[in-house]
Amino acid sequence: MIWRILGLLIVSSMAAAANAAVSAQLSEQVIDELETVRLTIRASQTRQTESLDLSALEQDFHVMGTNTSSQYRFINGREQSWVDYQITLQPKRTGEITIPRIAVGPDRTPTIVLTVRPLTDETRQLIDELVFFEQEFSAEEIYVQSELVVTRRLLYSNGVQLYSDLPGTPEIPDAVVMNIGEPVSSTTKRGDKNYGVVEQKFAIFPEVSGRFEIPAINVTASVRLIDAGRVSRKGVRVGTDSVTIQVLPVPAEYPADKPWLPAHAVVLERSLEPTNVEHNVGDTLNHQLKVVVSGNMGSTVPPVDLEIDDAEFRSYPQAPELTDDTSRGIVTGTRLQRSSLLPVRPGALVLPEAKLTWWDTRRDILREAHLPAQALTVSGDAMVAAVPAGQTEESDASGADPSPPVEPQIRTYLSDAWVWIVATLAVAALALLIFYRRPEQEGREEREEHVSDEPPFIDIPTLAGLKKDLKTSEPSHIYHLLCRALAGHFKTSEIHALQLFRKSSVAADSGLNTLTDLVYGDHQQEADTSEMRAQLLEAIEFLSKKPKHVRQQTLPPLYSHSPT
């Protein structure tokens, strides 16, 4: 009994396999060149679709598209089901072409022969005049990392229908490719015929020397033909040929110690704000250095080194900005270097010149872009020199009561003649002071100004509000609050008030230096601000004391007040 059942199962499975045959047929056995044919593959007695491998067809055909459908019927107790695969093909050549066997699950289709008749020369020439490509290249050979502009146009006449858009930016190994604008549609005339035009432009920057290939592209279209009074349409594929470009290495005469920069033109520009004729010591000057490169990207522009003199400026550079502009038909790169400059001494200061070496790809010569130096006139007092950190540490470690620190020396840049003039005036002022000075009287309502070696003190009640901000606020917020509070209580400009604050104590000078670096430096979020906050808090508390005498001038007054 068991053997009978097994036998029936084997027979039924063999019958099912026989019914599950795979067939294939063409919509036409003979077609003309440029026409398409539909290949239909049917798998019977199944409703399961398969993923077909059509790579064997690509040698002789363009696979234009595929479509899959399944059917199921139940009639008079009989089941019928099948899956159809419809594949649209366009032959790549004429003559007899054998369509190879294609696997569908465990089965394979039979081979089929298709005959493709060639077009007449007159018909082929007519089609070539109806729709075609044009390509232009800015150069036949270029230097490595320089720009190659490629322009391609698709021209089509009346009656042509385009079935696909133009391909996008080509993918080229070891090269950067950029679109130059969007595709532009227009009209033009070739000979006595009018055409519609779709134009694309892109720039290629090869990263290695040698050769690289711009791949071919193609689009599908339908053209209308009139032959012996009969109007017919034919599907065509229009394409370009692949093009090979030679890439030259860096020329031997280019300096080995300079960054390689090929371009059509390089321009250096400088701006300084505010644009005052005269500036003050401690003012914040916004300096911008712009490098504009025609024919290359902003990312290829090397940094321009400005040798800022530390004895004249404190420099706080910012991260550069790199941009690209393609609105002029080529790539124009820009590198913008910003920095904040603080003059630290008065006099005639100089912003140094800037130079940038580059290779002119149009003239094929070595060139150098140059930006001349810029002179500034700065007024005011020289800024205080920094006090070594060890001095503060020794005073803190002693544990003794803090005493007013000695005022640090100020950098002077006066000539010898001015030194003698100042010394003479100081001696004369001292002589007048000794001659007119009177003994102090008790009960005097007007307080006499007193000269000491201590730094200036002033009652600053509103600075108490800064103590809370010092613990929680960001450095930039602390800096602006401190400037306004000091200017209001010292009754002077913010810059002068900051200078007075620096002179008040070592903690004030060190804390303000750190605060300035945090506000104008590059790593504001990474710095530890606890020590800076403690130093500024100590300096504010020190200023808030109320001594009996206030020194308001570095030199004593020429005349003392007469007793009443």
Describe it.
The protein has 564 residues and is an alpha+beta fold. The chain is elongated, with a radius of gyration of 43 Å. The strands form 9 sheets. Strands 10, 12, 14, 15 and 16 form a 5-stranded antiparallel sheet that branches. Strands 22, 24, 25, 26 and 27 form a 5-stranded antiparallel sheet that branches. It has a 4-stranded antiparallel sheet with strand order 1-3-5-4, with no helix packed on it. A hairpin with a 4-residue loop joins strand 29 (354-360) and strand 30 (365-371). The protein has 4 domains: 21-118, Immunoglobulin-like (Sandwich); 122-248, Immunoglobulin-like; 262-379, Immunoglobulin-like (Sandwich), CATH 2.60.40; 416-440 and 447-543, no CATH class. Helix 6 (475-490) crosses helix 7. The chain has helices spanning 2-19, 121-130, 389-398, 416-436, 466-472, 475-490, 494-504, 506-520, 530-543, and strands spanning 22-26, 30-32, 37-44, 61-75, 78-91, 95-99, 103-104, 107-108, 112-117, 131-137, 141-143, 148-156, 161-162, 175-179, 184-190, 193-206, 210-214, 218-227, 230-239, 243-248, 262-263, 265-273, 278-280, 285-294, 313-317, 321-325, 332-343, 347-351, 354-360, 365-371, 374-379. Mean pLDDT is 80; it is low at 5-20, 386-417, 438-461 and 546-564.
